[in-house]
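Study both lines:
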Amino acid sequence: MTFVRTVNGDIKPEELGFTYSHEHIVCIPPYWQEKNEDDLLLDDENKSLKDVMDFKNAGGNSIVDATAVDYGRDVEAVKRISEKTGVKIIATAGFNKGFLWNAKLKGNLKQIVGNYETYGEWIEKATVNELAQYVISEIEEGLEGTNIRGGQLKFGTGYNSISPLEVKTIKAVAIAHKETKAPIHSHTEAGTMALEQIEILKKEGVKLECVSFGHMDRNLDPYYHVQIAKTGAFLCFDGIGKIKYATESARINEIIYLVKQGFKDQILISGDTARKSYYKHYNYGLGLEYIIKKWVPRFIEEADRAGLDGESLIKDFFINNPMRCFAFCD
Protein backbone atom coordinates (compact mmCIF):
# COMPACT_ATOMS: atom_id res chain seq x y z
CA MET A 1 0.00 0.00 0.00
CA THR A 2 1.31 3.45 -0.90
CA PHE A 3 1.78 5.75 2.09
CA VAL A 4 3.34 9.01 3.28
CA ARG A 5 5.33 8.96 6.53
CA THR A 6 4.81 11.88 8.94
CA VAL A 7 6.30 12.54 12.36
CA ASN A 8 3.06 11.16 13.82
CA GLY A 9 2.90 8.02 11.71
CA ASP A 10 2.00 6.87 8.22
CA ILE A 11 -0.97 8.31 6.35
CA LYS A 12 -2.60 7.84 2.98
CA PRO A 13 -1.21 10.22 0.33
CA GLU A 14 -4.63 11.83 -0.15
CA GLU A 15 -4.58 12.85 3.54
CA LEU A 16 -1.73 15.32 2.93
CA GLY A 17 -3.91 18.09 1.52
CA PHE A 18 -2.41 21.51 0.82
CA THR A 19 1.35 21.03 1.25
CA TYR A 20 4.47 23.15 1.40
CA SER A 21 7.25 21.00 -0.04
CA HIS A 22 10.37 22.48 1.57
CA GLU A 23 10.50 24.36 4.87
CA HIS A 24 12.47 24.42 8.13
CA ILE A 25 10.56 24.68 11.38
CA VAL A 26 12.92 24.24 14.35
CA CYS A 27 16.64 23.84 13.72
CA ILE A 28 19.96 24.98 15.18
CA PRO A 29 22.60 24.23 12.54
CA PRO A 30 25.92 23.55 14.33
CA TYR A 31 27.88 25.26 11.54
CA TRP A 32 25.95 28.51 11.88
CA GLN A 33 25.79 28.28 15.65
CA GLU A 34 29.59 28.07 15.84
CA LYS A 35 29.77 31.20 13.67
CA ASN A 36 27.20 33.06 15.81
CA GLU A 37 24.88 33.55 12.83
CA ASP A 38 21.73 34.10 14.88
CA ASP A 39 19.43 34.73 11.91
CA LEU A 40 19.99 31.13 10.80
CA LEU A 41 19.01 29.62 14.16
CA LEU A 42 15.30 28.75 14.41
CA ASP A 43 15.56 28.15 18.13
CA ASP A 44 12.22 29.18 19.63
CA GLU A 45 9.66 26.39 19.47
CA ASN A 46 6.76 28.66 20.43
CA LYS A 47 7.50 31.23 17.73
CA SER A 48 7.80 28.50 15.11
CA LEU A 49 4.51 27.04 16.32
CA LYS A 50 2.76 30.38 15.83
CA ASP A 51 3.90 30.55 12.21
CA VAL A 52 2.78 26.97 11.59
CA MET A 53 -0.60 27.89 13.06
CA ASP A 54 -0.79 30.87 10.70
CA PHE A 55 -0.18 28.42 7.83
CA LYS A 56 -3.01 26.22 9.07
CA ASN A 57 -5.40 29.14 9.57
CA ALA A 58 -4.68 30.27 6.01
CA GLY A 59 -5.73 26.85 4.70
CA GLY A 60 -2.56 24.77 4.88
CA ASN A 61 -2.52 21.11 5.88
CA SER A 62 1.00 19.66 5.61
CA ILE A 63 4.65 20.75 5.62
CA VAL A 64 7.80 18.95 4.55
CA ASP A 65 10.54 19.86 7.03
CA ALA A 66 13.73 19.40 5.00
CA THR A 67 16.10 19.66 8.00
CA ALA A 68 18.68 16.87 7.81
CA VAL A 69 21.00 15.71 10.59
CA ASP A 70 23.80 18.14 9.71
CA TYR A 71 21.42 21.10 9.85
CA GLY A 72 20.56 20.80 13.53
CA ARG A 73 17.18 19.07 13.66
CA ASP A 74 14.96 19.10 16.73
CA VAL A 75 12.48 16.43 15.69
CA GLU A 76 10.83 16.20 19.09
CA ALA A 77 10.00 19.92 19.01
CA VAL A 78 8.70 19.57 15.45
CA LYS A 79 6.52 16.65 16.50
CA ARG A 80 5.07 18.69 19.36
CA ILE A 81 4.27 21.50 16.92
CA SER A 82 2.55 19.01 14.63
CA GLU A 83 0.48 17.64 17.50
CA LYS A 84 -0.50 21.07 18.84
CA THR A 85 -1.44 22.58 15.47
CA GLY A 86 -2.82 19.52 13.67
CA VAL A 87 -0.50 20.23 10.73
CA LYS A 88 1.02 17.05 9.31
CA ILE A 89 4.82 17.28 9.07
CA ILE A 90 7.25 15.08 7.14
CA ALA A 91 10.76 14.83 8.64
CA THR A 92 13.95 14.29 6.65
CA ALA A 93 16.65 11.63 6.86
CA GLY A 94 20.06 11.87 5.20
CA PHE A 95 22.40 14.81 4.71
CA ASN A 96 22.56 18.40 3.49
CA LYS A 97 25.79 19.72 1.92
CA GLY A 98 29.53 19.60 2.30
CA PHE A 99 30.59 22.94 3.77
CA LEU A 100 28.34 22.35 6.79
CA TRP A 101 30.39 19.30 7.74
CA ASN A 102 33.23 21.29 9.32
CA ALA A 103 30.94 21.68 12.34
CA LYS A 104 31.21 19.48 15.41
CA LEU A 105 28.79 16.61 15.85
CA LYS A 106 25.97 17.60 18.17
CA GLY A 107 24.03 15.93 20.97
CA ASN A 108 24.07 12.15 21.24
CA LEU A 109 24.97 11.71 17.58
CA LYS A 110 28.59 10.95 18.49
CA GLN A 111 27.43 7.94 20.47
CA ILE A 112 25.10 6.80 17.69
CA VAL A 113 27.51 7.00 14.74
CA GLY A 114 30.86 6.61 16.50
CA ASN A 115 33.22 8.87 18.39
CA TYR A 116 33.98 11.34 15.59
CA GLU A 117 34.57 15.05 16.21
CA THR A 118 32.94 16.54 13.10
CA TYR A 119 30.38 15.57 10.48
CA GLY A 120 33.15 15.63 7.89
CA GLU A 121 35.30 13.20 9.86
CA TRP A 122 32.35 10.84 10.23
CA ILE A 123 31.43 10.94 6.54
CA GLU A 124 35.06 10.59 5.44
CA LYS A 125 35.90 7.63 7.69
CA ALA A 126 32.62 5.71 7.43
CA THR A 127 32.03 3.47 4.44
CA VAL A 128 29.22 4.15 1.99
CA ASN A 129 27.38 1.12 3.35
CA GLU A 130 27.80 2.32 6.95
CA LEU A 131 26.37 5.70 6.03
CA ALA A 132 23.54 3.98 4.17
CA GLN A 133 22.70 1.85 7.18
CA TYR A 134 22.55 4.95 9.36
CA VAL A 135 20.15 6.63 6.92
CA ILE A 136 18.06 3.46 6.63
CA SER A 137 17.73 3.43 10.43
CA GLU A 138 16.48 7.04 10.30
CA ILE A 139 13.64 5.91 8.04
CA GLU A 140 12.85 2.57 9.66
CA GLU A 141 13.61 3.18 13.35
CA GLY A 142 13.87 6.88 14.16
CA LEU A 143 15.86 10.09 13.89
CA GLU A 144 18.78 10.58 16.28
CA GLY A 145 17.72 8.07 18.89
CA THR A 146 14.02 8.96 18.87
CA ASN A 147 11.16 6.84 17.56
CA ILE A 148 10.20 9.63 15.13
CA ARG A 149 10.85 8.25 11.66
CA GLY A 150 11.93 10.18 8.61
CA GLY A 151 9.55 10.47 5.67
CA GLN A 152 12.03 11.45 2.97
CA LEU A 153 15.75 11.11 2.21
CA LYS A 154 18.05 14.00 1.37
CA PHE A 155 21.45 14.73 -0.08
CA GLY A 156 23.05 17.93 -1.32
CA THR A 157 25.96 19.40 -3.25
CA GLY A 158 27.82 22.71 -3.42
CA TYR A 159 27.77 25.60 -5.85
CA ASN A 160 28.84 24.35 -9.30
CA SER A 161 30.69 21.46 -7.64
CA ILE A 162 30.26 18.02 -6.15
CA SER A 163 32.91 16.99 -3.63
CA PRO A 164 34.01 13.36 -3.08
CA LEU A 165 32.25 13.33 0.30
CA GLU A 166 29.05 14.62 -1.31
CA VAL A 167 29.27 11.82 -3.89
CA LYS A 168 29.61 9.42 -0.97
CA THR A 169 26.41 10.67 0.65
CA ILE A 170 24.53 10.55 -2.67
CA LYS A 171 25.51 6.88 -3.02
CA ALA A 172 24.52 6.18 0.60
CA VAL A 173 21.12 7.83 0.09
CA ALA A 174 20.64 5.85 -3.14
CA ILE A 175 21.22 2.60 -1.24
CA ALA A 176 18.81 3.72 1.50
CA HIS A 177 16.20 4.63 -1.11
CA LYS A 178 16.37 1.23 -2.77
CA GLU A 179 16.07 -0.45 0.63
CA THR A 180 13.28 1.69 2.14
CA LYS A 181 11.51 3.08 -0.98
CA ALA A 182 11.47 6.51 0.70
CA PRO A 183 11.32 9.52 -1.66
CA ILE A 184 14.47 11.62 -2.15
CA HIS A 185 14.99 15.38 -2.01
CA SER A 186 18.10 17.01 -3.45
CA HIS A 187 19.68 20.24 -2.27
CA THR A 188 21.23 22.05 -5.24
CA GLU A 189 23.29 25.03 -4.16
CA ALA A 190 21.96 28.05 -6.08
CA GLY A 191 20.11 25.61 -8.32
CA THR A 192 23.30 24.12 -9.80
CA MET A 193 24.52 20.55 -10.48
CA ALA A 194 21.13 18.84 -10.73
CA LEU A 195 22.04 17.21 -14.05
CA GLU A 196 25.32 15.96 -12.60
CA GLN A 197 23.46 14.60 -9.58
CA ILE A 198 21.09 12.86 -11.96
CA GLU A 199 23.97 11.04 -13.67
CA ILE A 200 25.12 9.66 -10.31
CA LEU A 201 21.59 8.64 -9.35
CA LYS A 202 21.10 6.86 -12.68
CA LYS A 203 24.30 4.85 -12.14
CA GLU A 204 23.04 3.91 -8.68
CA GLY A 205 19.74 2.66 -10.09
CA VAL A 206 17.44 5.30 -8.59
CA LYS A 207 14.09 6.00 -10.26
CA LEU A 208 14.11 9.72 -10.99
CA GLU A 209 10.32 9.87 -10.55
CA CYS A 210 11.05 9.44 -6.83
CA VAL A 211 13.33 12.50 -6.62
CA SER A 212 12.62 16.21 -6.13
CA PHE A 213 15.27 18.82 -6.88
CA GLY A 214 15.26 21.89 -4.67
CA HIS A 215 16.14 25.55 -5.32
CA MET A 216 15.13 25.47 -8.96
CA ASP A 217 14.16 29.14 -8.77
CA ARG A 218 17.74 30.04 -7.84
CA ASN A 219 18.70 29.11 -11.41
CA LEU A 220 15.94 30.33 -13.72
CA ASP A 221 17.19 28.59 -16.85
CA PRO A 222 14.34 27.16 -18.97
CA TYR A 223 16.56 24.77 -20.95
CA TYR A 224 18.10 23.41 -17.74
CA HIS A 225 14.71 22.90 -16.12
CA VAL A 226 13.33 21.06 -19.13
CA GLN A 227 16.29 18.66 -19.11
CA ILE A 228 15.58 17.86 -15.47
CA ALA A 229 11.84 17.53 -16.04
CA LYS A 230 12.37 15.12 -18.95
CA THR A 231 13.77 12.58 -16.47
CA GLY A 232 10.42 12.47 -14.65
CA ALA A 233 11.81 14.16 -11.52
CA PHE A 234 10.02 16.88 -9.54
CA LEU A 235 11.24 20.48 -9.62
CA CYS A 236 10.84 22.42 -6.37
CA PHE A 237 10.49 26.18 -6.65
CA ASP A 238 11.12 26.84 -2.97
CA GLY A 239 12.29 30.44 -2.77
CA ILE A 240 8.92 32.16 -2.94
CA GLY A 241 9.13 35.59 -1.34
CA LYS A 242 12.93 35.83 -1.59
CA ILE A 243 13.17 38.81 -3.91
CA LYS A 244 16.94 39.09 -3.33
CA TYR A 245 17.30 36.02 -5.55
CA ALA A 246 14.65 36.65 -8.21
CA THR A 247 11.47 38.63 -8.81
CA GLU A 248 8.17 36.84 -8.44
CA SER A 249 7.46 37.65 -12.10
CA ALA A 250 10.57 35.72 -13.12
CA ARG A 251 9.57 32.73 -11.00
CA ILE A 252 5.98 32.72 -12.21
CA ASN A 253 7.01 33.12 -15.85
CA GLU A 254 9.33 30.14 -15.55
CA ILE A 255 6.66 28.00 -13.91
CA ILE A 256 4.15 28.96 -16.60
CA TYR A 257 6.74 28.09 -19.25
CA LEU A 258 7.21 24.61 -17.75
CA VAL A 259 3.46 24.10 -17.56
CA LYS A 260 3.15 24.96 -21.25
CA GLN A 261 5.93 22.46 -21.99
CA GLY A 262 3.80 19.74 -20.39
CA PHE A 263 5.41 19.45 -16.94
CA LYS A 264 2.64 20.72 -14.62
CA ASP A 265 2.59 17.39 -12.76
CA GLN A 266 6.23 17.77 -11.68
CA ILE A 267 6.19 21.21 -10.05
CA LEU A 268 6.32 21.82 -6.27
CA ILE A 269 6.16 25.16 -4.46
CA SER A 270 7.49 26.30 -1.07
CA GLY A 271 9.41 29.01 0.78
CA ASP A 272 12.43 27.35 2.46
CA THR A 273 12.00 29.51 5.56
CA ALA A 274 15.37 28.86 7.20
CA ARG A 275 15.98 32.28 8.79
CA LYS A 276 14.42 34.23 11.64
CA SER A 277 14.01 37.13 9.21
CA TYR A 278 11.74 35.01 7.00
CA TYR A 279 9.40 34.21 9.89
CA LYS A 280 6.59 36.50 11.01
CA HIS A 281 6.79 35.58 14.70
CA TYR A 282 10.57 35.63 14.99
CA ASN A 283 11.48 38.83 13.18
CA TYR A 284 8.42 40.31 11.40
CA GLY A 285 9.11 38.54 8.10
CA LEU A 286 6.60 37.35 5.52
CA GLY A 287 5.91 34.17 7.47
CA LEU A 288 4.50 30.79 6.54
CA GLU A 289 1.14 32.30 5.60
CA TYR A 290 2.61 34.42 2.79
CA ILE A 291 2.50 31.90 -0.03
CA ILE A 292 -1.14 31.00 0.56
CA LYS A 293 -2.36 34.52 1.23
CA LYS A 294 -0.34 36.53 -1.29
CA TRP A 295 1.51 34.38 -3.83
CA VAL A 296 -1.28 31.94 -4.69
CA PRO A 297 -3.80 34.66 -5.71
CA ARG A 298 -1.14 36.38 -7.77
CA PHE A 299 -0.16 33.16 -9.53
CA ILE A 300 -3.80 32.37 -10.34
CA GLU A 301 -4.22 35.83 -11.85
CA GLU A 302 -1.06 35.59 -13.97
CA ALA A 303 -1.72 31.99 -15.05
CA ASP A 304 -5.28 32.87 -16.12
CA ARG A 305 -3.92 35.81 -18.09
CA ALA A 306 -1.53 33.39 -19.84
CA GLY A 307 -4.48 31.25 -20.95
CA LEU A 308 -4.14 28.59 -18.24
CA ASP A 309 -6.42 27.48 -15.42
CA GLY A 310 -4.67 29.03 -12.41
CA GLU A 311 -6.81 27.42 -9.72
CA SER A 312 -6.35 23.97 -11.22
CA LEU A 313 -2.57 24.48 -11.34
CA ILE A 314 -2.49 25.52 -7.68
CA LYS A 315 -4.26 22.27 -6.82
CA ASP A 316 -1.58 20.40 -8.80
CA PHE A 317 1.38 22.20 -7.21
CA PHE A 318 0.17 22.02 -3.61
CA ILE A 319 -2.06 18.91 -3.46
CA ASN A 320 -1.78 16.47 -6.37
CA ASN A 321 1.97 16.67 -6.94
CA PRO A 322 3.01 16.42 -3.25
CA MET A 323 0.64 13.47 -2.90
CA ARG A 324 2.76 11.58 -5.46
CA CYS A 325 6.17 13.08 -4.67
CA PHE A 326 6.20 12.28 -0.95
CA ALA A 327 4.66 8.82 -1.15
CA PHE A 328 7.00 5.88 -0.64
CA CYS A 329 7.81 4.50 -4.08
CA ASP A 330 6.49 1.15 -5.26
Summary: The radius of gyration is 18 Å. The chain is about 40% helix and 15% strand. The longest helix spans residues 164-180.
